[in-house]
Amino acid sequence: MAYKFTDNYKEQGARKKLVEVLRKKGIADEKVLEAIGQVKRHFFFDETFWNQAYKDIAFPIGAGQTISQPYTVAYQTELLHIQKGDKVLEIGTGCGYQTCILLKLGAVVYTIERQEQLYERTSYVLPNIGYKPNFFLGDGSKGIPEHAPYNKIIVTAGAPVIPETLLQQLAIGGILVIPVGDEKSQKMVTVLKVGEYDYEEIVLDTFRFVPLVGDKAW
Ligand code: SAM
Known about the structure:
Elements: H1 9-24, H2 30-38, E1 59-62, E2 65-67, H3 70-80, E3 87-91, H4 97-104, E4 108-113, H5 116-128, E5 134-137, E6 150-155, H6 164-168, E7 170-181, E8 186-195, E9 198-207
Parallel strand pairs: 3-4, 3-6, 4-5, 6-7
Antiparallel strand pairs: 1-2, 7-8, 8-9
Helix pairs in contact: 1-2
This protein binds S-adenosylmethionine.
Residues 65-68, 91-92, 94-95, 97-98, 112-115, 118, 139-141, 156-157, 209-210, 212-214, 217 line the site of S-adenosylmethionine.
Enzyme class: transferase
Subcellular location: Cytoplasm
InterPro entries: PCMT, SAM-dependent_MTases_sf
């Protein structure tokens, strides 16, 4: 893929329209909408496909994976209630678009991807467009215990169950957002850790994610 990092009126206008589309679909957190309006999603696409970048759709990014639909990114981000300085573990870096949204909101991001091709590309692209998370290559279904605990954990692939390891790596008062279900559809689940072994779980809307593949997953 050839990378060209320019942002013209066409892309800026399309980004504004995308924000309005997401607002109409129910995204209400102004900070999240502002971040969507600021992160240049076309930077994650080959220039040939820039006309697709601000449609509210998922799109192939190679290695059989997708950049998530903007609505899904905004929905998961809203559920995380990011505060400036939050330490966030993101499982499934993909192309890094969600990572940039978290960074825009002031989070300190630890992001892990199991596909080497995506890990290599994202570790090159993100610093080049001004975003600096902590990148990891490996099986994120086990979390990253050496940097735990995290204030927030976001899983961007569909899991069969909530991995116990992720609950353990959540700080008390922390929030986990994870799609849980079978290969065809998953329910978005948020878990609030209220005590060392106490959790409050809320099951929300249905989505379709690529599978979370790993030791504690599919
Ligand atoms: N949010 C990403 C973005 O903005 O591009 C999209 C993520 S994509 C829907 C899900 C990603 O999770 C894929 O890149 C996939 O390789 C990755 N993945 C699946 N299982 C994983 C695991 N056990 N550990 C780390 N990454 C995993």
